[in-house]
Specification:
40% of the residues lie in helices and 19% in strands. By secondary structure, it is of the alpha+beta class. The longest helix has 15 residues, at 59-73. The protein is globular and about 40 Å long.
Length: 129
């Protein structure tokens, strides 16, 4: 599990994503899942090296993560979690908005947060404080 924090800019409130509850939650989930340092993970038996701002997922595993988060954070009378297809369409919309990039294979996708350095906490920033 990733540790640390990500920065969320106040100007986010002016974005099209902010006005869409589901897509905004998905965007926050993507930021939280992104790696903060380069490392290698195994996806099945395939080693995948992730750089800062990247994570590995699949359509249904991302939906499961979203769904679990939705159940934890939603109020009792909220509408049910969106379908896997809806979550994937939102992910494609985030790509169209150039907030992230999706590199897909037939087994998994690598999601790269665009301009990750804007959201990441750096050791230098922590040292300066």
């Amino acid at each position: 599990m990733n540790r640390g924090y990500v920065k969320v800019w106040r100007k986010t409130i002016d974005s099209a994503v902010f006005t869409h509850d589901g897509m905004f939650k998905l965007w926050m989930l993507c930021l939280m899942k992104a790696s903060h340092k380069e490392h290698t993970v195994l996806v099945g038996s395939t080693p995948v090296t992730l750089k800062p701002g990247q994570f590995v997922t699949g359509r249904y595993s991302l939906w499961e993560d979203y769904h679990q988060w939705h159940l934890k954070k939603s109020k009792p009378r909220r509408k049910p979690a969106p379908s896997a297809d809806s979550v994937f369409r939102w992910l494609l919309t985030l790509q169209k908005l150039q907030m992230l990039h999706i590199k897909s294979s037939n087994k998994f996708s690598i999601i790269t947060i665009t301009s990750w350095d804007r959201y990441a906490n750096s050791a230098q920033q922590m040292h300066n404080r």
